Amino acid sequence: MRIKLNLDNHCVETEIRKLYNAKVKSCLRGQTITDHDADVIELLKALLETVDFPGLRSALKAVSGEKTYPAVLVVDRTNKPWIEIKNQRIEMGDKQG
């Protein structure tokens, strides 16, 4: 699965939250939800609950919203999500404790 991220003027956490909220609002409005939509909602919710976004932002300016790069959230066959920016794989670490 590949999900385009818009990191213009906000960080990766904000973008993932915006995408999640938009998908949930679509559900609440009674729009038809595909299996893919359900998978996306589940993925985004899990990321919001488990990823160490402060650590990710402090380690990499590319995901902090300070600079704009084309970015894609990727989940491959291993089901481990990562972000692709400028052909670079950026792992998303879990929250500690």
Describe this structure in words.
With 97 residues, this protein is α+β, with helices and mostly antiparallel strands. Helices cover 41% and strands 19% of the residues. It is built from 3 helices and 4 strands, in the order βαααβββ. The protein has helices spanning 12-28, 35-50, 53-59; strands spanning 2-5, 71-75, 81-85, 88-91. A 4-stranded antiparallel beta sheet has the order 1-2-3-4, covered by helices on one side. β3 and β4 (88-91) form a beta hairpin. It is globular and about 40 Å long. The mean pLDDT is 88.
State the helicity in percent bands.
40-55%
Order of helices and strands: EHHHEEE
> What summary fits the major beta sheet?
4 strands, antiparallel
Strand order of the largest sheet: 1-2-3-4
Separation of the first and last Cα atoms: 28 Å
Q: Are there runs of 5+ residues with pLDDT below 50, and where?
A: none
Strand count: 4
Our estimate of the beta-strand percent is 15-25%
Average predicted local confidence, pLDDT: 88
The gross shape turns out to be globular
From the alpha-carbon coordinates, what is the Rg to the nearest angstrom? 13 Å
Treating each run of at least 4 consecutive H or I residues as one helix, how many helices? 3
Structural class: alpha+beta
In quaternary terms, these chains amount to single chain
